[in-house]
Amino acid sequence: MVGKGTQDASKGRGGAEQRKAASTQGGPIDRPERIRNVALVGRSGAGKTILAEALLAATGAITRLGSIEAGNTVSDADPSEIHQQRSVTLAVLPLTVGEIKVNLLDTPGYADFIGEMRAGLRAADAAVFVVSAVDGVDASTTALWAECERIGMPRAVVISRVDHPRAGYDAVLTACRESFGAGVLPLYVPVHSGGVVTGLLGLLTGTVSDAVAGAAQRPATEAELVDSDAARATLIEGIIAESEDETLLDRYLGGETIARDTLTADLEIAVARGSFYPVLATSAETGVGLAELLELLTGAFPSPVERALPTVTDLDGNPAGPLACDPAGPLVGEVVRTTIDSFLGRVCLVRIFSGTLREDSIVHIGGHGLTERGHLDHDSDERITHLQSPLGATLHPVPFCVAGDICALTRLTDAETGDTVSDKENPLLVAAWEMPEPLMPVAVRGETHSDDDALAKNLGKIVAVDPTLRVERNSETHQLVLWCMGEAHAEVVLDRLRAQGVKLETVEVITPLRETFARPAAARGRYVKQSGGHGQFGICEIEVEPLPRGAGFEFVNRIVGGVIPGHYVASVEKGVRAQMERGVSAGFPVVDIRVTLVGGKTHSVDSSDAAFQAAGALALREAAAASRIQLLEPVSMVTISVPDAYVGPVMTDLSTRRGHMTGTTAVADERTEISAEIPDAELLRYAIELRALTAGSGWFRRGYLRHEPVPANLVPAGASV
Length: 721
Description:
Elements: H1 16-22, E1 35-41, H2 48-58, H3 79-84, E2 91-97, E3 100-106, H4 114-123, E4 126-132, H5 139-150, E5 155-160, H6 169-180, E6 184-186, E7 188-193, E8 196-202, E9 207-210, E10 216-219, H7 222-227, H8 229-242, H9 248-253, H10 260-273, E11 277-281, H11 290-299, E12 312-314, E13 332-341, E14 345-354, E15 356-358, E16 362-367, E17 378-383, E18 387-391, E19 394-397, E20 400-402, E21 406-412, E22 420-423, E23 428-430, E24 440-446, H12 449-465, E25 470-473, E26 480-484, H13 487-499, E27 504-507, E28 514-517, E29 521-529, E30 536-546, E31 553-557, H14 566-582, E32 593-601, H15 609-626, E33 629-643, H16 647-656, E34 660-667, E35 671-679, H17 686-693, E36 699-709
């Protein structure tokens, strides 16, 4: 792209002229204006990784293309990625175009790894949506677009794999415009020769870039220009609609030919502003569109100085002073990804928002923490002994990293994803981005006792690198439960544990039930033992009656005449409570009962606190034997968000899960929220099943509501109810 326009700096953006001036400067990358941070996003299999590989090769960052099948691409170095043949982690891939450094952030496209995708968006200033010309736009891609829309991310669309025999460029372009909006318009159209895409015709330049001839430029033929007239007119009208020059439309409608430089400048400003979304066609194999994409990345996408910084506060939560992407400003960076390397220890990818990070400096590491997921708050100072520039898994030492750039820090002690790196003397915190909630439980255990110890030891490392993982040690079921985003995420977590030498197995997740009395009962607890010397004597008589759901436990003392001294009454209650925790039928805690102490006996010598605790526990067991015990299961209030087209199938599926629908609400983007009460036992794999039911476009959130009786046909085998 050539011919950049200008923009008033008072509007808060550096403007296209600033980017043009920066690209002419020499020297090392020490100015944010010479940096572009671009996330590659899109569905799994769209071709993001191989496109990034082709761009690296085209700019000389690598000498030859790797392949996903061979497991040797720069992006996919994690063993899980090679095994699954898809990206599961965020990768930073810097390349140089002229004097502009472009940090490509290759993000996973599979829904299980949306946390890594959001980390990529956090580190990026613009996004390229990669859409396959074979597979087209799906619901998950549309959802990703809406997510970028919410954060105001500048975007472009790349239709990949246009060389494939089943490619349908025109149909996919139409689908993109229908899904993403009218602001999505092509800058180039494919040129065919012998039924094969051989190059691109620039709608503004009227020239053809021929990939077969090494991206050589030639004027378009008369026939090619005629065929592209309609697309050219639509593009020009779209650019004029976004122009800040209010006279441009009148001049165009009056028949004036608008200068190409004017259109190009307005186009680049609109792209950087995030209100116009250019479309390009590419083929990683033949090189079609690579030069044009690089030109777009460097010429139209915003530099870091043109993007607002995340909210920053001091350690007490007070807003920090106005910060800008200034290498001379106070240091503020954020850890966007963490890995554990067997040689380098903890490796943290850090996006620097302000200031300059230098090797051998002392910085403050501060973190908000996700305590419920096993991530503790961080508040410590560390010396930066190893500052690196990442290229996938390869690291190269650098002396500094300026605002707007991305670097890797190795051998840190405590830093985790989401932590803030700031000046030791002026510690700050960056507002955390939203982490998706893991909703699929996987119960694991070591194969042996020593494996249990190894599992506990290595879980901390796994949690440190994965903020979407939640670890629960259930005190009721005594299970270790890993809450994951889905099956693929669970497979990655288990693979990482096994790679640490942990031998483990997965087991069925136990839903923590409750027990209660279905009808009143009375019983006597007699604990009398005499084996020579000091004995044990405690007798109590109790009445048990059920209470309404959620009422908890009541203990009533109706002893008359001091039959049982007050201090032994407390012992009886303690014994009853202990037995309630252990359960009286299936080993689950007892809830919602009233226990009334009505009588008993003591012995002047042998009665004791321990004896009356045992008597109270025995009395509750005897009462349970005389009554009918009812099992209660947890029920959650679930809110399910789906596109309108999937409301019917989702509601039908809810009826098979013993769900009780409580209402529906129409929300934005042609979506509906369904509210329902669903037993927890029916939600164990719902994260996977809802995704399959809605083509990846549905999601849900849940919260505990209450316990309800388990249907008789679903009572666990062996339960005495």
